[in-house]
Amino acid sequence: MISIKGLIIKSDRGIYFVKLTNGDEYQCKARGLFRKEDKKPLVGDYVDIRISDEDGSGYIEELYPRVSELLRPPVANINQVIILMSIREPDINLRLLDKYLLMTEKADIKTIIVFNKTDLIEQEEKDYYQSIYEDIGYDLYFNSNVEGTKLHLKELLEDKTTAITGPSGVGKSTTLSYLFPDKSFPIGEISQKLRRGKNTTRHTEIKDIGFGYILDTPGFSSLSLDFIDNKEEIPYLMKDFQSFISKCRFKNCMHLNEPDCGVKKAVESNEIAESRYKNYVSFVEEYEEKRRY
Ligand SMILES: Nc1nc2c(ncn2[C@@H]2O[C@H](COP(=O)(O)OP(=O)(O)OP(=O)(O)O)[C@@H](O)[C@H]2O)c(=O)[nH]1
Ligand SMILES: [Zn+2]
């Protein structure tokens, strides 16, 4: 038996689908030792596997060091995340978006925001969201699969490994199906009653698009703050706060009730969007609430 290097392209209930460079695919289990070491193989991990001569079953023996690691979706070695949001159907949840951005800042992974279903909104609404997120410095795109998918979105994926994520029903699979008609992405019917999409994408899977890799990931509707290690780091993960933090009178300012706070002044002068600040305050509160129990 020899060890061979491969890439985990999918995982499902403890079974890892590992693709070797020659294209062969093996279903593998993880070595029990990983659990003891508190290591968990992730989709996107490069691994050494060992294949049994007897029944052809595979075992993951070794995990290679990661370039990046994201919690939600749990993937390794991606270069960037595209977060897809709709403004209607489902209604936009800016708190969820801001929380997601907190997480990608913490993981230090480039994040691109795409607002989908723009056929359902007016220009003023587009302008409103654009002004908030472009000013912060995030790359922002609009798309509608009804009015004609923006095929140039493909350029964003060139030579990159990109996770496509977003709340359930915003149109991740639909958009990917238009961009890559020869790949299959399950599409759900939006429930008219709940105005929410059905959960259709259940597993994270890497797809080779020839000029890069993409990961269509299951939609989510909430996100916990368990990636935060201490309250004090939260303001440093708000990208738009950074140039104002140095203007606070107190070095350990949490930008809540302290006097002479650079961040609060920036909110008053509209240099920081009010929704961003409000969501920040709620993240600090949520974190403290969780700590209490
Ligand atoms: N009006 C409008 N509807 C869209 C658009 N894109 C997708 N939809 C619809 O939105 C619903 C959900 O689309 P999906 O592609 O399944 O959404 P998803 O984000 O993959 O959902 P999950 O797999 O649950 O995460 C479907 O009924 C699509 O037809 C769009 O640009 N405009
Ligand atoms: Zn402050």
**DSSP helical segment count:** 7
Radius of gyration: 21 Å
- Structural class comes to alpha/beta
What distance separates the N and C termini? 50 Å
Instruction: Give the names of the bound compounds.
Output: guanosine-5'-triphosphate, zinc ion
| Residue share in helix | 10-25%
Q: Can you tell me the CATH topology of the largest domain?
A: Rossmann fold
Instruction: Characterize the overall form.
Output: globular
CATH architecture assignment of the largest domain: 3-Layer(aba) Sandwich
Task: Output the strand order for the largest sheet.
Answer: 10-9-8-11-15-14
> What's the assembly state of these chains?
single chain
Structure explained in plain terms:
The chain is of the alpha/beta class. It folds into three domains: 3-65, Beta Barrel (OB fold (Dihydrolipoamide Acetyltransferase, E2P)), CATH 2.40.50; 70-216, 3-Layer(aba) Sandwich (Rossmann fold); 231-292, Probable gtpase engc, domain 3 (Ribonucleotide Reductase Protein R1, domain 1), CATH 1.10.40.50. Helices cover 24% and strands 25% of the residues. A six-stranded mixed beta sheet has the order 10-9-8-11-15-14, sandwiched between helices. Strands 1-2-3-5-4 form a five-stranded mixed barrel. Helix 2 (94-107) packs across helix 7 (274-292). The radius of gyration is 21 Å and the shape is globular. The termini are far apart. Bound molecules: guanosine-5'-triphosphate and zinc ion.
